[in-house]
Write a structure and sequence with these properties.
single chain; 302 residues; alpha/beta; 4-stranded parallel β-sheet; 4 strands; 41% helix; globular; binds zinc ion
Length: 302
């Protein structure tokens, strides 16, 4: 059969019928799969960024770390390295756009240690506000701050609360848990607040190449209990009175098993938070209602 004869089989009417049949068939499975998009803000092209914001339903993550001493054995950027590992893996599970490295938080209590970068109070708040404002201007109407640093525990709720001082067209959410309260491999230590068993274990998962376990016992991470004040009385120097070496716990107790358990818990918890935030259609609506009422409080009825 010549190629001419072959062509003649696919006469015009037959082609029309074939094409009509093909159009009624369900699209092949791979056509429904969305193209892979990076979760890293800085790796997206401008047009992919637009797609990323659409795919994430305007949900963006701001993993928040710090530069501070972490005992004698962990790197200065531990909090940032851990939180980005958790946030990036969570965003892979539940798509969200993740802002680049951010470490401009509260760390006044470690200014006596080498390598600490402690920005002033006003700058911390101003920079965080401008960062979330700029994220929102680019479509991130739901900004989830994933906190990796214990020293931010008061800063972040204050920042979120202060979003009520004037109207914003986006919502700030804060997720501030790093370890589960129970479950997993039994822990060997009781004091475990900074560069201790849990944090060191997580670093064995996120960046094992930066962990110097052999140095973990070179300094004491014991609670020195030097301040005698009733419970409920707060001072800024409390941390230094208890842990002057900027080390709380014993990193030498760390294991990969504990790190795996805790990191998986962290990733899953952030992924769940992202899903819930995407589904949240209440916060922005009530926030707007609140801003409107706040312009004329005398009219507000119970
Ligand atoms: Zn830390």
């Amino acid at each position: 059969m010549t190629s001419r004869a072959c062509l003649s089989i696919f006469s015009f009417p037959l082609l029309v019928v074939l094409s009509a049949i093909l159009h009624t068939l369900p699209a092949p499975a791979q056509a429904a799969v969305q193209p892979k998009l990076s979760v890293h803000w800085e790796e997206l092209t401008a047009s992919d960024f637009r797609d990323g914001i659409r795919r994430s339903q305007g949900t963006c993550l701001l993993p928040f770390g710090i530069l501070e001493k972490h005992g004698p054995h962990l790197p200065l950027g531990t909090d940032l390295l851990d939180v980005r590992y958790a946030a990036l893996h969570a965003a892979e599970q539940e798509y969200a756009v993740v802002f680049p490295e951010y470490y401009f938080g509260q760390i006044a209590e470690a200014r006596h240690e080498p390598g600490t970068i402690a920005y002033s109070r006003n700058l911390q708040l101003a920079l965080l506000q401008e960062t979330t404002d700029e994220m929102a201007r680019n479509g991130c109407k739901k900004v989830l701050i994933v906190n990796g640093h214990g020293g931010n525990e008061h800063l972040l709720p204050f920042f979120a609360q202060s979003q009520l001082d004037k109207p914003h067209d986006y919502v700030v959410y804060v997720f501030d848990e790093r370890s589960p309260h129970s479950g997993g491999p039994a822990k060997k230590t009781t004091i475990d607040m900074h560069a201790g068993e849990s944090e060191t274990s997580k670093m064995l998962i996120s960046r094992p190449d930066t962990v110097h376990l052999d140095r973990a016992a070179n300094e004491s991470g014991a609670d020195q209990k030097r301040q005698k004040l009733p419970e409920g009385v707060y001072t800024g120097i409390w941390w230094y009175t208890r842990f002057p070496n900027h080390y709380s716990g014993d990193g030498s107790a760390a294991t990969k098993e504990l790190g795996e358990y805790q990191m998986k818990w962290w990733i899953d918890s952030v992924a769940k938070a992202i899903a819930a935030i995407k589904a949240d259609d209440v916060s922005l609506k009530l926030q707007n209602e609140f801003y409107e009422k706040a312009t004329h409080p005398l009219d507000t009825q119970p």
